[in-house]
Design brief:
By secondary structure, this protein is α+β, with helices and mostly antiparallel strands. Among the domains are: about 150 residues, Rossmann fold (3-Layer(aba) Sandwich), CATH 3.40.50; about 140 residues, Putative Large Serine Recombinase, Chain B, Domain 2 (Hect, E3 ligase catalytic domain fold, Alpha-Beta Complex), CATH 3.90.1750.20; about 90 residues, no CATH class. The chain has 18 helices and 19 strands. A hairpin with a 6-residue loop joins strand 9 and strand 10. It is elongated and about 125 Å long. The protein starts with a strand and ends in a 25-residue tail after the last helix.
Amino acid sequence: MSRAVILARVSDPKQKINGDSLEDQIIKSNTFVKAQCWTKDREFNLIESGRKGEREYFREVFDYCKSKMHTPEKIDYLVCLNIGRFTRGGGEDYLKLKREFEEIGVAFTDIYKTVGQKVNTMEDYGEKYDWSIYSPSEPAEVYEANQRRDYVRAQLTQMIGGCIRNIRKGYWNGPAPFGLANKKVDTTEDGIKNILEGSIKEEQYMVKILEMRADGFPDKEIVKTVNAMGFKTRIMVKRDRRTMVKIGTRGGVPLTEKKIQEYVVNPIYCGVIVAKWTKYQPIKAVMFDGIVSVDTFNRASRGKVFVTKNNDGSVQVKYNIKIGSIGNGDKRLRNNPDYPFKGVIRCPTCGKEVKASASRGRSGNKFPSYFCDRKHLRWHKTQNELDTVVTNFVGELKYTQPFINLFDEVFTEVWNEKRIGALKDSKLAENNVAELVEKQKNVLECIKSTSSDTVKKALEVNYEKLELELTNARTNRDSVESTELDIKSILGYANYLMEHPKDLLIDRDNMLNQRQMFGTVFEELPTYDNLVNGTAKLQPIYHYIGNENVSKEDLVQRIGVEPTLDSFTDYCLTARLPLV
């Protein structure tokens, strides 16, 4: 009696999960084998594409049949629902596979009998040759195989082409990133499309991560704070790669620093799509402006990804840039900590920024100095001379009283907003602790009620795991609550800085920050002589203690364009017009 193996295949795992097609193929193939009076040897259920080059498990069928080739259980037939279940690679691939099975003595057939029996044209003469044996149905088989291949091509072209068109218009394809959710909308021109919106459960965590990173918090501190709020990654079903049978779950773990670094470089959180199907060009998402502003995202990514929105609605994205160079062209700062004021002092002769270096004398010792020799008589000052002049001048600066009063008012308002946010975080952390306590209580009740030692042991392991999570959650909750500092002490420290601006302006460890801070002090970069004489042009919020007795004319403000914090590329930053 002939022996047969059955091959059932589906391309999409969803067909297996939803119970569609695979079981139906098995039932029909078994009925066919019984009708032919063959013995079924084995069934092969494959969940993979039938296209050439994408078949991972198909060779197992061939290897199995080959292993039975010289045994009493030799396989005679390979049965499929149709040629499309055997291959989607077209007629050429079909004939190749069919020949391979024939070489090991296995004939391929389908239940619809598209594949016919072979005929020997010399049978009437009792002879048999290689050329005399052929399959009359082979042209029809090849046609059917090509039809199946063309069908796949047409379907994939339509489906993937539609996805590409949608994403290039700003709609979203596929699962939503963490913190976001998919939403179906009925559009006027494009029909029902998929867009993004903030997730009810996850958005608060993602916003907190981006805002804290934008404010300069280290990733380790962000992890601690957000986990205290109850953060857990999405729980996903884990399935066996071959059978698609559920074998467990993955996800549901706390936030890590690595996860933060993955999140903060995805511009979708500020409403910009960058993907393979957009050729990695930025596209503004339709009806979704993001869960944070572009400015917050840019500060959170810290130069890894920098998004710019244009007035015409288009967007641009730059990668791996230095934040200090934004708006400053390609100019680079040579920040030598030995010369902290090189970038903020101009030459009295040519008006350009001074240079700095250490020259070696005859004795072999180095003499550090600031200098300028751009096509004029060399001007120079020793390092100590210039540093002392700058430090003394800044030490005599004070904020004006109206500005201090305004600062107190604004600071109190902003701090109250931050405190409300801290209270919200504290509440979330407390809720997380309460949920864990409730889960632990339920597990304990189950332990008491069960009589199975195996179940009890598993519950005890779960209980211990919850106990560890609860300990960490309580520690994080206490940490969040401890950040609610007394507003008076914070305000007192802020007032100290207002009374001693030197502590803010002199920052030898961060020359870029110091350069930006000097932009808030001077209308234009001062020269060495300006600092010595006390004639440097200051912003209205500052006054120089040594200038209390200057004339009214000296106090008249010139009309100008207020400078940006990091635009000291040229020595003159304002449009200078005649005195008012």
